[in-house]
Amino acid sequence: MKPLRVLVLMHESLVPPRSLKGYTEKEIDEFRTEYDVITTLQRAGHTVRALGLRDNLSDLRAAIMEWKPDIAFNLLEEFQSIVTYDQHVVAFLELMRQPYTGCNPRGMMISRDKALSKQILSYHRIATPRFAVFRRGRRFCLPRKLKFPLFVKSATEDASLCISQASIVADVARLKERIEFIHEQTQSDALVEEYIEGRELYVGVLGNERLQTFPVWEIDFGTLPEVMAGIATRKVKWDRRYQEKHGIMTGPAEDLPEGMESYLAKLSKRIYRALYLSGYARMDFRMRPDGSVFVLEANANPNIARVEDFTESARAAGIEYRALLEQIMRLGLSYQAPWTRVEA
Length: 344
Fold this sequence. Notes:
The protein is α+β, with helices and mostly antiparallel strands. The chain has 3 domains: about 5-100, Rossmann fold, CATH 3.40.50.20; about 130-195, 2-Layer Sandwich (Dna Ligase, domain 1); about 195-335, 2-Layer Sandwich (D-amino Acid Aminotransferase, Chain A, domain 1), CATH 3.30.470. The protein is built from 11 helices and 13 strands. It has helices at about 25-45, 60-65, 85-95, 105-110, 115-125, 170-185, 235-240, 240-245, 260-275, 310-315, 320-335, and strands at about 5-10, 45-55, 70-75, 130-135, 150-155, 170, 190-195, 200-205, 210-215, 215-220, 250, 280-285, 295-300. The strands form 3 sheets. Strands 8, 9, 10, 11, 12 and 13 form a 6-stranded antiparallel β-sheet that branches. α3 (about 85-95) packs antiparallel against α4 (about 105-110). The two termini are about 30 Å apart. The mean pLDDT is about 90.
């Protein structure tokens, strides 16, 4: 790939140092993705500029107008401390006619709204756990269609925020308590869905029109007791010491039923297109012991640190980290945003 001017967008608190010397592993984990992307692109010969954003777009506009980057590499996960506002930054990039990596604004909006995405998937007859949304400030009323045990999470937040063993509830009293907890802690509506017992599987998808899927990945809960296994809590996903203590890891899914790998690949592509995604995404599934599969979430712009589910599954498909980042940039440059179809 020819050298490009790459403007890497991230939260202002995550702009990484030039060297990791003197930083603890815990401190590095905070900006690991940003560091991995920037240093890898620099080593590949690209001219890279990091831009930290929090609540003001003027710096972004100035960087685009003055530096004229070939592409903006989007690593933002929030804007103005609001997760769902990152889509507006991407919309701003389109208004500026600036090519960018990752998902388009419509796909981000739909996939970030977990209830809306589940409604769309249901319309397309793609199995997803039955659910209900409990809105802040509304009277509690349990729909008859929902059967315990239930799983309670934020309708908009991601990265396993406020997900713990207490997220699985078995009676009305605990359900009300957990819904109130989500309302208070995340200031968002609560999504309540039927808990699906089984294996947790991930499938990475790369592409705009022509899509490529990566090998099915699975989380191994290690030595966690059975009562605590089967749920990717925040500690399971992000606490390095907790992972090492219990031998928690992710890797290629083994001993899948015959034909399951190809079925999940086709299903992931259906979901990707149904939700208008582009660039790259990760699909999260649950598979019951009987082999039935349910979609949990579609994650636009998943974590792409050098050692992460999406990047490791890409590596298993023969795409090394540098090549993956450059392919993500090619997809950004070739994406047909609406402004590309309008005459100047």
